[in-house]
Amino acid sequence: MYQNPVQYRAHQPYPAQRAYPAYPAHPAYAAAQPFPARPSGGTAITGAILSLLGGLAQVVTVFGSLVALTLTSDSTVSQYLPDWYGAVMVLTLLVSVALCAGLLVGGGFLTAGRSWARIVVAASCGVAIVFGIVSEVVASAMYRGMGADIAAGQGSSSVFGFLGLIFPIATAVLVLLPSTAAWCRSRGV
After folding, report:
1. Which domain of life is it from (predicted)?
2. Domain residue limits at 182
3. Is residue 164 part of a domain?
4. Closest by alpha carbon to 129, among 171, 101, 86?
């Protein structure tokens, strides 16, 4: 065989690279702080909706008071009513108009996150609670004055009248909760 004149040698490694200076390490960043959670508007919006519904109920009461006032002028109906019934209906009309305005305005502005609307709604609910209790006392006196037959059926009316107070109590509690105040503050309005 032929001899190869070039001797193959084992592979030689490349010459060593010279070392470059390292870059300095970056300083450690602080851990990211999460944004504080915005308060949920559940209680505020529920309170506002209940306030608006209460305002609409007062609209019905206003019309009912107007109808009752027209009935007191009718001689066939007025003979069965006490003399003070017309004055009570005028008072009911005025209070219902004020409650209607307070609940509708307060509920509307509470949906926009206005803090002062909480106070308007709570005050309106307080007036509604007091007026509801007074109305039950007046109705009881009126039924007693009409005779035993009508007074016997008055018990169920009182139960439903006092059950009707749950609505303004629940509304007042919802708008006075700290979570409602926090939601109004977070809205920044």
Report:
1. Bacteria
2. 42-187
3. yes
4. 171
Task: Give the total number of structural domains in the chain.
Answer: 1
Q: Could you give the CA distance from residue 189 to residue 175 in angstroms, rounded to a whole number?
A: 16
Q: Cβ distance 83 to 141 under 8 Å?
A: no
Distance CA 69, CA 78 (A): 10
- Which regions of the chain are under pLDDT 70? 1-13, 15-16, 75, 145-158, 189
Residue type, 148: A
Q: How far are the Cα atoms of 8, 64, 66, 89 from residue 74, in angstroms, in the given order?
A: 132, 16, 13, 14
Indicate whether 17 belongs to any domain: no
Give the span between the Cα atoms of 143 and 153, in whole angstroms.
9
The answer to whether residue 54 sits within a structural domain is: yes
Amino acid at residue number 143: Y
Q: Which residues make Cβ contacts (< 8 Å) with residue 175, sequence separation at least 6?
A: 43, 44, 47, 48, 51, 110, 118, 121, 122, 125
First-last CA distance in the chain:
101
Among candidate residues 75, 86, 69, 81, the one with its CA nearest the CA of residue 150: 81
The one-letter amino acid at 186? S
Residue 31 within a domain:
no
Cα–Cα distance for residue pair 167/107, rounded to 1 Å:
14
Dihedral sign (CA 151, 152, 153, 156)? positive
- AA letter at 90: V
